[in-house]
Design goal:
This protein has about 600 residues and is α+β, with helices and mostly antiparallel strands. Strands 14, 23, 24, 25, 26, 27, 28, 29 and 30 form a 9-stranded antiparallel beta sheet that branches. Strands 4-5-6-7-8-9-10-11 form an 8-stranded parallel barrel, surrounded by 5 helices. The radius of gyration is 25 Å and the shape is globular.
């Protein structure tokens, strides 16, 4: 057991000055069987600490329904065994390019614009969550013999609001739930952010990707004493569907890291290892004028151009960071663990198929009662997946334009059973008019809830209505197909599959491939040539979303998901399938770095 404190100039353990050399690694973005390897990579890079967020929505998808909350404790135990201290950032809001910034859809659906404020109902929900979560943090604090040295109160609040009452109450909840190690806040190094996000008595830290001397100069205007720390050193960046790839030059990133350390500061490399947004948990951003912002969904890979890539391999950035960090380490750095071995190329033939309506019948929720207006995903209690809306165009009437007001985010439209087009938020009207009477189906998908900025918590689905000419169509029937309905293989076995006929429609596809040495395989990469958009499972494990919009073409398959002999693949295609097979192999090449496109 030891005593960790925030001194006037340094962090201290039992009174001895220490510098925190931390790296972000999110336990929920890495398969649990691979935690040990990834943590050992952080140690080999020269880090003495690991930082993780905690996503509330992953662990409490519905009110009072807690799922594997103990995963955080198991991760902290793994960090302790690896010889690392730990920084925990439990939110309740985390951003993290994660669905809804980590807030459950039922929370934002219930409290709306009152989230992240002093609202009593919202804070009561937070308190119930913290009461469930935080005992496993408290019992693993450094003064009880564990690795936890610091805990964050909220997250980058100065980028969102100015409710100091809210921040103080969140900090008080942490203490009431047993957190006794120092609390801190983190914000961008700008006056308005530090003013809005700091809490008197708590250490303020800064988040940036370059310009450490200027960033710390701004921080010192708001906090004259205490150790300096860059809580998020952005060594890379994340990517959006339909946008170019993002990389940052390794030498430039290493120079920025060196500048932080030359300032005498501590650092948290964000990300040291990014991992993957499995199971459709990727978030989204908004870009442009506030009232007309474009939705930018985040890709499944959270490689982040990090020094340890998505596949657990060291990059050129890793080598340079190790050189920068080595002089600050206590003794020689550990050797690198063995590099994971990729799967030899193999093809999974997708031989069976079921149309989306049949999948809905087998796995979907009960259809909601007919309503005057379309219910949103939040009103249906849906976080990730599809909702099928059905509505009639009365007749007789002539052909008029059919569209959707308030579509979030994408809809495949069928009229009398015939596919007529794909609508999006920015292109929400069918190109050809529709005459009545007709039956319209809209299969609507959320592409990820916004995780940052003033549009956090916006609802998904059809948030306005279905329009024929300028007339709303009422009498809507809605039914949900949740992603977590696929979590039970026995349920999927009840889908009425038929042989693939080669026509390539939307639906659920199933096939197999064989692996000779699953135990010796660290990972695989999976591609779907010619497919459009959907989700993939291997042996019941959801790899996440694929989309022909790019830039991501290959989905990461964790080695522990594979098994000797026959392995099963499911593909849920929502627009149009390609060749009836999936290709698996060793994955994408190691990133060597490139232009400094993401000096964030």
């Amino acid at each position: 057991m030891a005593d960790f404190t925030v001194g006037d100039d340094h962090f201290r353990i039992d009174g001895k000055p220490v510098r925190l050399l931390s790296g972000a690694l999110h336990y929920f973005r890495v398969h649990e069987a691979q935690w040990e390897h990834r943590l050992s990579m952080l140690r080999a890079m020269g880090l003495n600490c690991v930082e993780t967020y905690v996503p509330w929505n992953l662990h409490e998808p519905r009110p009072g329904e807690f799922r594997d909350v103990g995963a955080l404790g198991r991760f902290l135990d793994a960090a302790h065994r690896a010889g690392l201290w730990a920084i925990v950032r439990p939110g309740p809001y985390i951003c993290a390019e994660w669905e809804n910034g980590g807030l459950p859809a039922w929370v934002t659906g219930r409290f709306g614009r009152r989230v992240r404020t002093r609202d009593a109902g919202y804070l009561a929900a937070v308190e119930r969550w913290f009461t469930e979560l935080l005992p496993q943090v408290a019992e693993r604090q450094i003064d009880r013999g564990g690795p936890v040295i610091m805990v964050q109160a909220e997250n980058e609040y100065g980028s969102y609001g100015t409710d100091a009452v809210h921040l103080r109450r969140v900090a008080a909840m942490l203490g009431a739930c047993g957190v006794s190690v120092p609390l801190f806040t983190s914000d961008g190094p700008e006056d308005h952010m530090l003013t809005g996000g700091s809490v008197p008595g708590l250490l303020a830290t800064a988040n940036f990707g370059s310009g450490a001397r200027e960033a710390f100069r701004v921080l010192r205007r708001h906090q004259a004493g205490g150790p300096l720390m860059c809580m998020e050193f952005w060594c890379g960046w994340f990517e959006h569907w339909g946008a170019p790839p993002v990389v940052r030059d390794p030498a430039q990133a290493a120079g920025a890291l060196r500048e932080i350390l030359e300032c005498g500061a501590s650092v948290n490399v964000y990300m040291a290892h990014g991992g993957t947004n499995f199971a459709g948990w990727a978030g989204a951003n908004r870009s442009g004028p506030l009232q007309d912002e474009e939705l930018l969904p985040t890709v499944t890979s959270y490689d982040y151009d990090a020094p340890v890539d998505e596949y657990g391999r060291p990059t050129e950035k890793f080598r340079l960071f190790r050189e920068v960090l080595a002089p600050y380490a206590d003794g020689p750095l550990p050797a690198l663990p063995p590099e994971p071995v990729g799967l030899a190329p193999v093809r999974a033939e997708l031989t069976e198929w079921a149309p989306l309506p049949a999948v809905m019948e087998a796995l979907g929720d009960e259809e909601a009662a007919e309503s005057g207006v379309p219910p949103t995903f939040e009103e249906l209690g849906v976080d990730r997946g599809l909702v099928r809306y059905r509505v009639a165009v009365p007749g007789p009437r002539g052909p008029y334009t059919l569209g959707v007001a308030g579509l979030r985010d994408r809809a495949t439209v069928y009229v009398d059973g015939v596919r007529r087009g794909v609508l999006s938020e920015g292109d929400a009207y069918l190109p050809e008019p529709v005459a009545g009477p007709a039956e319209v189906e809209l299969w609507v998908e959320s592409l990820g809830r916004v995780n940052y900025g003033p549009r956090l918590g916006e609802p998904k689905g059809i948030t306005g209505g279905v329009l024929h000419e300028r007339q709303f169509l009422h009498g809507v029937r809605a039914r949900a197909l949740r992603l977590d309905a696929f979590d039970e293989p026995a349920a999927v076995a009840g889908v009425p599959f038929a042989p693939v006929d080669g026509s390539g429609p939307s639906g659920l596809y199933r096939g197999t491939f064989e692996v000779a040495d699953a135990a010796g395989t660290g990972h695989a990469g999976l591609e779907l040539p010619g497919w459009t958009r959907g989700f993939v499972w291997v042996n019941g494990f959801c790899l996440g979303r694929y989309w022909s919009a790019g830039p991501q073409r290959t989905l990461y398959v964790p080695g522990p998901v594979l098994r000797d002999g026959v392995n099963e693949v499911w593909v849920l295609e929502v627009e149009g399938a390609g060749a009836p097979f999936a290709e698996l192999g060793p994955g994408v090449p190691v990133r060597a770095g490139g232009p400094a496109d993401a000096d964030a």
